[in-house]
Amino acid sequence: MTAARTGTVTTRSAWHDVPRLKVRRFAAIAMAEAPALAEEILCEIQREYPHLPVVLDDSGEPMALVGIRRAIEVFVQHLERSEGRPTVPPGVFQDFGRGEGLNGRSLDSLQAIYRMGVRLAWRRFADIGQRVEIPPPAMYELVDAGYEYLDGLVDQSVRGYAEAAARQAGERLRLQRRLMELLLAEHHRGDPAEALTERAARIGWTLPGKVAVGVLLRPAREAMAPAVGQGVLLDMEYEQPRMVVPEPDAAGRPELLHRALAGWSGAIGPPVPLTDAAKSLRWAEAAVRLMERDLLPSGEVLYCTEHTEALVLLQPEELIDDLARRCLAPLTHCGPTHGRRLAETLLAWLETRGGAPEVAARLGVHPQTVRYRLRQIRELWGDGIDDPDRRFELELVLRAQRLRGEVGAVRGRR
Asked: Which of 58, 215, 384, 399 falls 20 to 30 Å from 278 in CA-CA distance?
């Protein structure tokens, strides 16, 4: 222990003023009693914490006992030299912290153990101080030094604890990724149920009856992972992160995801049986592609089940375009503007199955205008316009074009 500096005034250490002969006697007695003190501390720890594991070193001695004894000896050596701050023994207490982390205990219990050790050590040192006649001010200073030393032990343990926590988190992420890879695989060799059960058990994930798979778009390159909760599997390693939502229709689940994914965009596929997770992923990916083309709303995480029409009609783009070329061929020579108006009228008529007044109300035009257009439509398509299959194809392609903005939205459409 050294002199303390307060502002510009240096306060002399009371321990430094103790005669060197007394300091050496104190240190000699303390070193001689260190093994017994270490035993006493360990016994008290084991009594208070009976479930604490006992790890032996190569010689069969408890590693905790070795660490406690070594910590006492280093502290006493520092007292004898009275120079600088006590150096915490490397390794041992870092291992203690690492062990606490790996066994799922909190740092609070570890610090409580250390404080107990300091109290027991102080009692022994106080007794030795009385025997050697160390002045009370010096002994009070020894208490301060002991708690400063304790801070160093805790720092090492925290470092070990953090290392263990990081290693466990990394291992869990690795195992979780392997589980997700199996879940989202398109094809499996044999029945994947056993492998799923084994991989899920390794991370403590309860296999659900149904899942929905989400694909996310990052709001920023370095965006932090959303706090979706432990039950949701999340893999941020993909350019577009993926997540597997168990029991997506469970009470409170949509609200929890809505809060957790605020600021994110993307899509969540339809709920499917666990073994069909790849199908849900496929729809979520399709929805994200449409979002990137501004054909579905962006800026939020949407549910595929709420956009079924767009996903069904817009995803097979080449097929719909080919069908449109064939079905809408009669409009080719009508000119862009007039052809668009006829297409809108045709779609309104197909959707309402009504007469001119109903179609006119839907389009927001005069009924006479609708009658004129409907006569033109019948001239262009002939009797084919009365064929149910032809009408279905026409409505299909016109709805797809409306979703793409190629045919205007009607006023009466909900």
From this structure: 399
Rounded to an integer, what distance in angstroms lies between the CA atom of residue 371 and that of residue 359? Answer: 9
**Closest by CA position to 141, among listed 1, 310, 256:** 1
Q: SS3 for 113? A: helix
pTM for this prediction: 0.58
Q: What are the DSSP E strand ranges found in 195-323?
A: 210-217, 233-235, 242-246, 265-268, 272-273, 301-303
Q: For residue 60, what are the CA distances in angstroms to 56, 64, 71, 200, 301?
A: 5, 12, 19, 38, 58
Could you tell me the pLDDT band of residue 283, with boundaries at 50, 70 and 90? very high
Token pair recorded at residue 176:
């979780």
DSSP assignment letter at 226: P
Q: How many CB atoms lie within 10 A of CB 74?
A: 15
Task: Name 288's Cβ contacts closer than 8 Å, sequence gap at least 6.
Answer: 215, 217, 240, 266, 267
Place of tokens 């049986």: 273
The 10s digit of each residue's pLDDT in 146-160 is 888 877 777 777 777
How far is Cα 359 from Cα 361, in angstroms, rounded to an integer? 5
Strands 265-268 and 301-303: parallel
Query: How many angstroms separate the CA atoms of 11 and 23, rounded?
Result: 20
Residues composing the chain: 414
For the purposes of burial, counting CB atoms within 10 Å of the CB of 408, is it exposed (0-12), middle (13-18) or buried (19 or more)? middle
